[in-house]
Amino acid sequence: xxxRALVLCIAALLCVTPASxxxxxxxxxxxxxxxxxxxNSVLLENEVAEGMGAYRxxxxxxxxxxxxxxxxxxxxxxxxxxxSPKLPMERRYALPATVAxxxxxxxxxxxQFHQPLMVDSAIRPATTQSGLHMRxxxxxxxxxxxxxxxxxTVDLSKKQSKREHAWMINRLLYYRSLGHILVIEESKCWxxxxxxxxxxxxxxxxxxxxxxxxxxxxx
Length: 219
Prior knowledge:
The protein is of the alpha+beta class. The chain has one domain: Muramoyl-pentapeptide Carboxypeptidase, domain 2 (2-Layer Sandwich). Helix content is 37%, strand content 13%. It contains 6 helices and 7 strands; from the N terminus they run αααβββαβαβαββ. A hairpin with a 3-residue loop joins strand 6 and strand 7. The longest helix has 23 residues. The protein is globular. The relative contact order is 0.17.
């Protein structure tokens, strides 16, 4: 009887050990995302973009022409906003309402945490989108193509503290409740589509000189 009980205890320990080992290796339950992507999320983005006249840019030449016409405006690194150094200069543009929203949110973020917000991505023509090799990247063409091709969407970095992360969730929920944005939380960024109404006039944020010492505002 004692031998049988010992065998059962050993078997139970063997069943528990793998899970315990995973816990020791740092495996945690999957995080519940407030803005998790749904099967129709990208389709909805495109429908909203079409409704506000944000049409798709297929080539970099079309983006360049829109910049010259003033249809797309530049995102500038400033005291409250940092444009990722990895983002090519020719893709640091978005629709005026999108730039206005980013500047507004970045200003709020800076006033709260004294740290700038970072933009990882903005306009991305279809020819660039089709060359991406990221897992889960949206297609370049069709009704579920990336809204980055329309200039109304930016990716905001999630390299943030827990407090900053919680604040971002609250502010994005607020602006979504007003009907100003659509949001998808990705692994490394907040993917935000800005609906033009409500953010027509950009917040005045002076650009920094090209040789400005960035470490003075990133501390």
